[in-house]
Amino acid sequence: MAGRFRFLTAGESHGEALTAVIDGIPAGLPLTESDINGDLGRRQRGYGRGGRMKIEQDQAHISAGVRWGLTLGSPITLTIRNRDWENWQQTMSVGSPPAGAAPKMVTRPRPGHADLAGAMKYGHHDIRNVLERSSARETTARVAVAGVAKRLLSEFGITILSHVTEIGGVHIGALEAPWEVIRQRAEASEVRCADPQAEAGMIEAIDRAKAAGDTLGGVFEVVALGCPVGLGSYVQWDRKLDGLLARAFCSIHAIKGAEIGMGFEAARRPGSQVHDEILFDKEAGFHRGSNSAGGLEGGVTNGQPVVVRAAMKPISTLRKPLRSVDLDTREAVEAVVERSDVCAVPAAGVVGEAMMAIVLADAFLEKFGGDSVDEIRRNHQAYLDYLKGW
Fold first, then answer.
1. What is the number of domains present in the chain?
2. Helix, strand, or coil here: 214?
């Protein structure tokens, strides 16, 4: 695995900080904290977010692996402080709480959350020990990690965007627009939707759910532009880029499904309406007239935009909670209510971008890897010159 992109995150939702350590970034990559913090801000926005986002102002601090604005080739450490830690120091203390100040235990698990299964797995009788790490707050660290991955990919012309296609059963219409226009529309939208009519319907649906004490899920689409032919491989199951992307997207909190390109719709159509015909001319070389495959064939990028959609279930914390059972008394109760969002699909799209960037950075380093950006650039350019000969 030498030279490959890998990372770990640590930290609890209401702990002192979130931390990430990244290994595999080559030396000589220009990197500043501003390359990371823009996406952290995007992750916090979106219609339907809860009160926590009004408290936090996520900013990543680079404490290792960078000198004078350039990566060193050694591990990079990122830290994001939790501002809300001030209100949780006793509850989340690393040491023993002061005498007589032991926090109230959480014993009413939420349906749809990791609460009960996590407590049973690790032997916790206080669900706080589960929900703090299983919280989607962890994705803050992933988005920070992806800021580094995106910076690497951008050196080689690869960019990533996302937009929301559905919330609460409200779908977008056909978007006959270039990807850059879709990006601009999405970033200007409260729900990150590029279809103004659907945007209005999504906002109304979120308002209705909030009034009812309920939550909503939806679907977002992530697109990577500029990927060369040949990332990933068909030779082993665990090198297929399709599988790596599906795994990454389904690792995001509350994601219950992922599809690539036409996805499940391909199962409903004959092959003549699914597969992208191969074309050739002297200027463009080999190319396609469509992209039903979502930029991937046989686990390998084919030069088309890589397109992944993910389905997010409604958030598990309901203001009008569902039935549950108390862990201590075994009595029927209502599930615990933690501070939460009504809808986080717009934010989940930014996390989807993060996972796309992380997987592509890993595949890019596998294909063109070197110890420095200059070495990777030589490898990359030599491969592009080779492709021109086809």
1. 1
2. coil
The span from the CA of 256 to the CA of 250, in Å, is 6
Q: How many residues belong to the chain? A: 390
pLDDT tens sequence across 340-379:
799 999 999 999 999 999 999 999 999 998 999 999 999 9
For position 3, what pLDDT does the model report?
42
Burial of 150 (0-12, 13-18, 19+ CB in 10 A): buried
Q: What is the mean pLDDT of residues 157-179?
A: 96
Query: Residue 262 has which token pair?
Result: 């036409």
Q: Cite the DSSP H helix spans in 84-188.
A: 115-122, 128-134, 139-154, 179-188
CATH classification at residue 165: 3.60.150.10
Q: Do the domain assignments include residue 284?
A: yes
- Asked if residues 202 and 171 have their Cβ atoms less than 8 Å apart, the reply is no
- H or E stretch at 41: helix 34-44
Nearest to 201 by CA among 188, 190, 214: 190
| Encoded tokens for 3 | 């030279």
Handedness of CA 33, 61, 361, 247 (dihedral sign): negative
User: Does a structural domain hold residue 1?
Assistant: no
For residues 92 and 15, the answer to whether their CB atoms sit within 8 Å is yes
Q: What are the angstrom distances between the C-alpha of 113 and each of 98, 315, 317, 335?
A: 30, 8, 8, 10
pLDDT at 194 over 70: yes
- Which residue range is the domain that position 356 belongs to? 6-388
Look up residue 289 and give its two tokens: 């007239």
Q: Quick one: which of 201, 303, 197, 311 has its CA closest to 246?
A: 311
